[in-house]
Design a protein that fits this description.
single chain, 650 residues, Jelly Rolls, 6-stranded mixed sheet, 25 strands, 28% helix, 17% strand, JmjC_dom, histone H3K9 demethylase activity
């Protein structure tokens, strides 16, 4: 069929004029007013039709037969359904995520010939012309891609990673190289809350063993902690003032230190404006608002992405090279980051490196300030803690930070440093091989237990060296907990937000769950988060679709990287259908990933790479499939590129 191709530049993005979701290929177009409608909206309109025309698409059971408006004859046209494509790749309930267009615009319906008229004036259309099918990609490109993929995987043996990690499930140590244990947690395949453990590894061990063990946990949607990503002594170069000075050195024009920047007031999530030098000073000294109270601020969109990339390559290249799994997840070079396979000029808002600078303080239980309210992301993300600082303004004894907490399955427990407490060990250093170092915790002391805390100077130690104070406290829920979590939020929305109107609980980022909220979730709903502290040099990996929240125990600088792994593609596609139904102005929709487009370009890249490996004898000798870690070549190339950039910057 001769389907007209839309005229678009590679750096342009087409969005549906009704639901505002990005369109990556087939869509319907109005020749008169240029209105574009995605196939998911077409599906919703057809589903709402009470009298379905014979042979028309209904309930995703078959194709649509439509008269071709552009043709002189009444020949039939098959309409590829976005829903039918998604159902093959990512199975989901067929009636889920319907916007309900019929209830909003009762007159917008399917014509007798199977065509759809342009949207009414209230929906932004002309309401008169028939919509015609258009495409964005080259003709048959997707079909050829599917055929090439099927030919390549035909006869290959697929490795099943979905059963989790047997070495962790059986409480066995991963000591195949004769060293001490790798600091891994005991993990469980159980669907119950007893399986809420966290896989943790040291960066050097991860570099040696590769990502096989990591992926066995990651494919099940488990968060992962990578420790010792850099020496804690190097964190001094990451305080906001040093970052500001480093950016000044690489900029051609001098930046104004009195420039006004945007920040988020963590007490009410409102946006405020503040001078950059005032924010930097308040990072360690505290900043008071007009009411005389200390403000908990989080810097927004600073430094800009382009400036941050230049700063990292010119001023901190060693951190980029040693960033955990950077050769897999880097926004441009990561070969297991699907978003990195998009064309260089493609528009994507939620990928790339970000610097997150926020105030923080420790207070009495229940009175702490959240930095990130409960939220969920469509893609994967990793946060590495680069710097932390106590607010010097909080020097009075009554405002001294709380003593260190150890965490047990969502419950904060004060621990005496000299009292042996079973199953609450957070000291992740090397120990004797007969002990399994774990970052999982069980509430063996009871939900209401509270042990007397030691003095502030009595800190946990690792290998006889005093361990640093934690910078942030994380709560991460499992993907399968989302339905019950949404149910709890909807039932208690007024109490949590002082707003009786329930909107979109898990996407609104309007709630921070305190300890008593988490106890209710555990006792009445049977779910609880994985709760853990983050220290300097620790990278926290959060899979797509896992709700999480963060509170700062001190002021912190986090280096964050958004990416999309193959293991998270299915969940990201499912979330895309949910986000499509949100209001058009919703923040989650504005940051939506083009999952379909990403998947296609990633598949195309994979086909080309496999062809190069299998057909090029010289390349095949250099890269051996039996190697546990195939990243060495990419790492060396990344280091070489970074070194060249550093020389040019100098």
């Amino acid at each position: 069929m001769d389907i007209i191709r839309a005229k678009m530049n590679s750096d342009e993005q087409m969005c549906c004029d009704f639901c505002k979701v990005p369109v990556f290929d087939y869509h319907r177009h109005c020749p008169r007013c240029l209105y574009d409608l995605c196939l998911d909206c077409c599906r919703d309109i057809r589903r709402s039709q009470t009298n379905v025309v014979r042979g028309e698409y209904a309930e995703s059971k078959g194709p649509v037969v439509e008269t071709n408006k552009d043709s002189a004859s009444d020949r039939a046209r098959l309409e590829p359904s976005a829903a039918s494509v998604n159902d093959k790749l990512f199975p989901q309930p067929i009636d889920a995520n319907d916007i309900g267009i019929r209830s909003l615009f009762p007159t917008w319906r399917v014509n007798n010939d199977g065509s759809i008229t342009c949207g009414p004036h209230e929906a932004g259309g002309c309401g008169s012309s028939k919509l015609v099918l258009r495409r964005i990609f080259k003709i048959n490109w997707i079909g050829k891609l599917v055929k090439s993929s099927q030919e390549m995987v035909n006869g290959c043996k697929a490795h099943d990673l979905e059963n989790g990690c047997s070495s962790c499930n059986d409480s066995r140590r991963l000591d195949s190289i004769g060293r001490h244990n790798f600091g891994l947690s005991k993990c469980s395949d159980s669907d119950g809350i007893d399986g809420n453990s966290v896989y943790s590894s040291v960066l050097e061990n991860l570099k040696y063993e590769g990502i096989v063990h990591f992926r066995k946990h990651w494919i099940n949607g488990e968060p992962v902690i990578i420790r010792n990503a850099f020496e804690p002594s190097l964190s001094s170069s990451w305080d906001p003032l040093s970052i500001w000075r480093g950016i000044q050195e690489i900029m051609d024009e001098k930046l104004d230190e009195n420039a006004i920047v945007k920040a988020v007031d963590c007490s009410n999530q409102s946006e405020v404006h503040i001078k950059l030098n005032q924010f930097i000073k308040g990072y360690s000294d505290g900043h008071k608002g007009e009411d005389g109270k200390l403000m908990m601020l989080k810097l927004k969109d600073w430094p800009p992405v382009s400036v941050l990339e230049e700063f990292l390559l010119c001023q901190r290249p060693e951190f980029i090279v040693n960033f955990p799994l950077v050769d897999f997840i880097h926004s441009k070079w990561g070969f297991l980051n699907l978003a990195a396979k998009l064309p260089p000029d493609a528009l994507q808002s939620e990928v790339g490196l970000k610097l997150l600078i926020a105030y923080g303080r420790q207070q009495q239980p229940g009175k702490s300030d959240s930095v990130t309210n409960l939220m969920v992301k469509m893609g994967d993300v990793v946060h590495m803690l680069m710097h932390r600082a106590e607010m010097r303004y909080l020097c009075p004894k009554s405002l001294q930070p709380e003593r260190p907490e150890r965490i047990a399955n969502g419950m904060a427990v004060h621990v005496n440093a000299h009292a042996p407490v079973q199953n609450l060990n957070l000291d992740m250093g090397e120990q004797s091989p007969e002990h399994t170092v774990s970052k999982s915790w069980s509430p063996s002391v009871g939900s209401s237990a509270e042990l007397l805390s030691s003095s502030h100077s009595e800190q946990p130690k690792t290998n006889g060296v005093e361990r640093s104070q934690p910078g942030a406290l994380w709560d991460v829920f499992r993907r399968q907990d989302v339905p019950m979590l949404n149910k709890y939020l909807a039932s208690n929305w007024e109490e949590l937000t002082n707003n009786s109107q329930v909107k979109h609980p898990i996407y609104d980022q309007a709630v921070y769950l305190r300890e008593h909220h988490k106890r209710v979730l555990k006792d009445q709903y049977g779910i609880e988060p994985r709760t853990f502290e983050q220290h300097i040099g620790e990278a926290v990996f959060i899979p797509a679709g896992c709700p999480y929240q963060v509170k700062n125990l001190q002021s912190t600088v986090q280096l964050a990287l958004d990416f999309l792994s193959p293991e998270s593609l299915r969940e990201s596609a499912r979330m895309g259908q949910e986000i499509r139904c949100l209001p058009n102005h919703h923040n989650a929709k504005l940051k939506m990933l083009e999952v379909g487009k990403i998947a296609l370009y990633a598949a195309s890249s994979a086909v080309k790479e496999i062809q190069k490996i299998t057909l090029d004898p010289k390349f095949n000798r250099d890269i051996r499939f039996e190697d546990q870690n195939l990243t060495r070549a990419v790492s060396e190339n990344l280091a070489r590129v970074t070194k060249q950039r550093k020389v040019s910057c100098g």
